[in-house]
Write a structure and sequence with these properties.
This protein has about 110 residues and is mainly alpha-helical. It is built from four helices and three strands, in the order βααββαα. A three-stranded antiparallel β-sheet has the order 1-3-2. Strand 2 (about 35) and strand 3 (about 40-45) form a beta hairpin. The N and C termini lie far apart (about 65 Å).
Length: about 110
């Protein structure tokens, strides 16, 4: 069986001063995974930074769950576009070096 690090939701909610219903709503929306073991509910440790980001969006910007989902989608789109820009810049640099090499060979 896979050994996953789990955080008790009650402990997480107390530490971050959020209601359990907020975490439950994130799970219902499909934004996070809740792990049930026996009678307790847990969060996966590798989700914590993303959940903390969602809490900041909720508390600082007063976004509801749908707004958080939209904001995360848009942030992911921005990251994807940044990656594409980096790839295109690298390709352009390779093309520039190739052209310079061709010109140097002609001289």
């Amino acid at each position: 069986m896979e050994n996953r690090k789990l955080i008790l939701i009650e402990t997480f909610c107390t530490y971050h001063e959020v209601e359990y219903s907020f975490i439950d709503s994130l799970s219902e929306r499909g934004l996070i995974e809740i792990v049930l073991e026996e009678t307790k509910s847990y969060l996966l440790e590798d989700q914590l930074s993303e959940i903390e980001k969602m809490i900041r969006l909720h508390q600082d910007l007063e976004l509801n769950i749908a707004g958080i989902d939209t904001a995360l989608y848009l942030l992911q789109q921005i990251d994807d576009l940044k990656g594409e820009i980096t790839t295109m810049k690298n390709k352009m640099n390779l093309m520039n070096y190739s052209i310079i090499d061709e010109l140097n060979n002609e001289i």
